[in-house]
Every structure is written in C-alpha cells, then in structure tokens.
Amino acid sequence: MATAADEGQLISMLVKLINAKNTMEIGVYTGYSLLSTALALPSDGKVVALDINREYYELGLPMIEKAGVIHKIDFREGPALLFLDQLLQDENNKGTFDFVFVDADKNNYLNYHKRVIDLVKVGGLIGYDNTLWSGSVALPPDAPMLAIIRDLRGHVIEVNKYLAQDSRIEICQLTLSDGITLCRRIS
C-alpha cells in the first residue's frame, strides 16, 4: 500500500510542528511519505530512508529530484533491522532522531519498535502506518478477508497491543487511510 495523500499531509505537518531535523523512514515504496518528510524538513534536515529494495526508492526518485530535496535524503538499501542494530551499537546515536515513520514489513513492526524507541529522542515521534490493517484488527478471527490481510493481521494486532501498554510512549491511533498510530516518546 502506498501512503495516502492525507497521511502525507499529516506527516509534513508533524515534521514541521516538532521542528524535526533528523528523521528516518523504514520502508520507502513509492516515496510519497519520504517526499512529504523531505519537503517539510529545513534545508539542513536529513531523512535516512531504509528499504530492502532500491527499485522502490527509484520509483519516487524523479519526483524527489524535481522537488529539489534529494540532498536531504540518505537512502540505505538492505534489511532495516540490521541497519538499526548497527546504529544502536554506537551510544551516540541513541535519542538523536526527531521523527521515524515505519511502513515496511508488518511482521517486523514490533522488532522495529524495540529498536527505534531508543533512537528517537524524548519528545520525538514514531508513526506506524497500516495499524487498522483494512479494519481486520477489529474483526473476529474467522471473518472473511484477503489472504495477505489474514497472514499479517496477528502481527498488526500484536504491535497495537504492545504500543498501548508501552509506558515510554503516548499513543494516538488515527483512522486516516488504513490507520496510523503516532507514538510520542515520553521517557
């Protein structure tokens, strides 16, 4: 799923509201949320963009170049968990990100959270896309749904439950598009 237009607007506004300069995006796909973030950052702001597939980044690259924000993007191809683990090995990286947007493999959302929580500063934001997962998170387990929705539904429910109980964050789940959960780190 691509980021919806209303989500892109929200991301842009959030980045501006918190005066973000150092951000990260896990899962690039069409590059729309990446573009929204880069446009909202000040001229010296950066977004580290992680994706396992460079083709996804290149899909949105013409628009990123046309918008004149390529200098704000540090694209890294490869497994995001490996990159996050490498960042965490250096204590100086902890608490340095203002905003992280996660829209990658849903089966790793909880693994991403357990890492990015230490990389985001207190007062910073983490956004998780698709946390309503086509409404399946509120349906009974035997309800009819597409195979991909059924296959990943449990992972989305698991991360939603975890986020709701994580005392290090305040959360707000929005019903924009397929659901976006915002987490503000409070400790």
TrEMBL record:
GO molecular function, one term: S-adenosylmethionine-dependent methyltransferase activity
Domain of life: Eukaryota
Claim: DNA-binding is one of the keywords in the record: no
BP GO terms, sorted: methylation
Keyword Cytoplasm recorded: no
InterPro entries: Cation-dep_OMT, SAM-dependent_MTases_sf, SAM_O-MeTrfase
Keywords: Methyltransferase, S-adenosyl-L-methionine, Transferase
Task performed by this protein: Methylates caffeoyl-CoA to feruloyl-CoA and 5-hydroxyferuloyl-CoA to sinapoyl-CoA. Plays a role in the synthesis of feruloylated polysaccharides. Involved in the reinforcement of the plant cell wall. Also involved in the responding to wounding or pathogen challenge by the increased formation of cell wall-bound ferulic acid polymers.
Family to which the UniProt record says this protein belongs: Belongs to the class I-like SAM-binding methyltransferase superfamily. Cation-dependent O-methyltransferase family.
Protein name (database record): Caffeoyl-CoA O-methyltransferase
Species of the source: Trifolium subterraneum (Subterranean clover)
